[in-house]
Structures are given as structure tokens and as C-alpha cells.
Amino acid sequence: MGVIKAALGDAILTSLWVFCSSTLRILTAQVAVFLGLQHVSLAGLFISTILATILVFTISFIGSRLLGGARFNPSTTISFYTAGLRADSTLASMAVSFPAQAAGGAFGAKGILQVVPTQYKHILKGPSLKVDLHTGAVAEGVLTFAFNLVILLIMIKGPKNPLLKVYLVAVATVALVIPGSHYTGPSMNPANAFGWAYVYNKHNTWDHFYVYWICPFIGAILAGLLFRFLFISPVKQKKA
């Protein structure tokens, strides 16, 4: 029952993340216009980072305080588990939570399309492959590797201040999204990618699972293994 409850929390949190994160581009443009900065170089990047910081902090608070430690990104669960930092995660629990997160992603994507004004719907496309299949798969894997390694470094070895941690996560995310936008979107979150693929009926293809699930999982596992090798000392067993 505990696994089912946790998976339900993951589904709810993932739907909130997909619903809210998809509006960042729209909100960035609106804030820039409101402040009269739409023609200022790098203003959009700064605004996006601040909005992403607020969003990540809010979603993290909801997940940890209101939903019992719920998570919204399967790749970070994998990387922390591989690094030996998820004592509460098992292969069985992940086998339940990942489909729940995917369902939450689909619910969030469908939800935002129902409420967003018509003039903005063309912006809400979600991650999509912009290069050939194998190049995209490698790119998504590398981006997810970098994303998870940075997350591990910030959360485990980074500053103590939680708000500063979240800000650094937002900066890293934006920094990876910019180059990744020319390849796969990018997603760096299989549940988010699945949600948008489901909306546009592209979720049940080999290309989708290859690019947005298999390669990101490989990248996340490698990030966890590298972090574990570099920073986590093996437990030395006492001699009897």
C-alpha cells in the first residue's frame, strides 16, 4: 500500500511539474514585455532562470512537505539510486512509480492545453526530435548525464542554503536546455517527454522510448556511478 501511495504522489507531482513548466516560455515573454525588456539581450535568459527557480522551489516544497517525498523525474531517481543515495527506492518501487509519473506527465500536458489561451497553444509542443534518431538519442543521453551529475553535485556537495541549491539547479537546467533545444527539446525527464508524446500520439513508438527513456536512463545511471566512484567511499567492513 505504501508503494501505491508513493506512486500516486509521484503522479500528482509530475502532473503539476509538466503543467507549470510548460508555461515558462510564455511567462518569460510576458514578464519581459511587462518590464519593457523584450529587446534587451539576455533579459529573457535571466527571467527564465528566476521563474525556473521559483517553480523548482515550489514543486520541491510540495513534493517533500505535502506529498511525502514525491518525485517528478525518473532520471533523477535512477541517478540517486545508482549513487546509493536513495535508501527508500527499490527496483520494485521504481517499477510502480515510473509508469505513475508517465501518467502524471500525460495528465499535466493535456491539462495545460485545456486552459491555455488559443494564441499560445502553438508554443506548447513539448520535447521533439530535431536531428536524426541516433544523434538525438546520444544528445538526450549526454544531456541527462550532465543534468544528473550536476544535480548530484549541487544537492550533495553544494551549498547548504536550500534556496541557493534550487537556484543553481535552475541555472544548470537552463544552461543545458539552450544547447539541447537544437537536438531533442530537450527533456532530461522521461515522464515529461512521455506526457507530450502521449498528447500528440507519439508515445508508443520505438523512437520515443529509445530517445527519451532508454538513453536518458543510461545517462542517469552513468552519472550516478561516476558520482559514487568520485565522492562516496565504500563502506569498510570490520574484521571479525
UniProtKB/TrEMBL annotation:
Origin species: Lupinus angustifolius
Keyword Transmembrane: yes
Domain of life: Eukaryota
Ranges annotated as spanning the membrane: 12-35, 42-63, 137-156, 163-183, 210-231
UniProt keyword annotations, A-Z: Membrane, Repeat, Transmembrane, Transmembrane helix, Transport
Alphabetized Pfam families for the sequence: MIP (PF00230)
Family: Belongs to the MIP/aquaporin (TC 1.A.8) family. SIP (TC 1.A.8.10) subfamily.
Membrane topology term: Multi-pass membrane protein
Primary location group: membrane
Name the record gives this protein: Aquaporin
